[in-house]
Design brief:
Layout (H helix, E strand, L loop, with lengths): L1 H36 L5 E4 L14 H8 L8 H9 L12 E26 L3 E4 L2 E12 L1 E2 L6 H16 L6 E10 L11 E22 L2 E19 L3 E4 L1
Antiparallel strand pairs: 1-9, 2-7, 3-4, 4-6, 5-8, 7-8, 7-9
Length: 247
């Protein structure tokens, strides 16, 4: 009988210990969740769509045939445009013709390996909301993004990074934004006092691929060849067009 009573007491002690243990874990977790909830709350506001539109690039069938079999892939719009504007005719090429044409060293593609949204990239100083339109006291505001390290063909690189971020984050990113005195109508926003307004941006870091590009011609057969291929790690801040944030 004494033994059974001891077992019961020990069992109660065990259950009490488990209850205390899980209660402590719950309290710690609850504190963590509550503390994160008290962090700055950002509001993302969409403005009216801008009239800025990029020119669409339609790749010709002959160029597609050249590019599709190349590894790594070629995403550089300038290189594709140059190939588009080139004339490939086998009319005057004999079977014995052989040529190798150097097209240059190109940034071929960019693959983002990490990306995040920065809400407070650029502070719009002295900006106030009037009837759901954000008014900037200065005449205009220029907001520029930046590559965090130097690289060759920086304009091509920026274009590759923008295309990748538009695809992955589905946001209208651009390396340079110009906002005039009065910004566009802002959707879903209430009149608030003492609000800070910002232009948001995307941070991206990833792998940039370079290669020397050659056009190989053997009789009527044409192909692209890539040599000296190498990768480079690069990152950038890219502003988001058509949005503002507030806190």
């Amino acid at each position: 009988m004494f033994t059974n009573k001891s077992v019961v007491i020990n069992m109660y002690r065990f259950y009490f210990f488990v209850l205390i243990l899980f209660g402590s874990i719950w309290l710690i977790t609850g504190d963590t969740i509550n503390s994160s909830a008290t962090a700055t709350t950002w509001n993302l506001h969409q403005m009216e769509k801008e009239s800025h539109q990029e020119e669409e690039l339609t790749v010709k069938r002959q160029v597609k045939e050249l590019v599709e079999v190349v590894d790594p892939a070629i995403d550089n719009r300038k290189l594709l445009h140059m190939l588009n504007e080139s004339t490939f005719s086998s009319k005057f090429i004999s079977f014995g013709t052989e040529a190798r044409i150097y097209l240059g060293r190109w940034a071929l593609s960019y693959e983002s390996e990490e990306h995040a949204l920065k809400h407070d990239y650029y502070l719009l100083e002295d900006a106030q909301l009037y009837d759901k339109s954000l008014v900037i006291q200065d005449n205009a505001v220029q907001v520029d993004g930046a590559l965090t390290n130097k690289t060759k063909n920086s304009e091509d690189v920026k274009e590759l990074m923008v295309a990748q971020m538009k695809e992955k984050m589905e946001l209208p990113v651009r390396f340079s934004l110009l906002y005039k005195h009065k910004l566009h109508f802002i959707k879903d926003v209430q009149e608030q006092a003492e609000v800070n307004w910002y232009i948001p941006a995307v941070y991206t870091k990833g792998r940039l691929t370079y290669a020397d590009v050659y056009l190989q011609i053997e009789g009527k057969k044409k192909s692209l060849q890539l040599q000296n291929t190498f990768d480079e790690t690069i990152s950038a801040w890219i502003p988001i067009s058509g949005y503002v944030t507030s806190e």
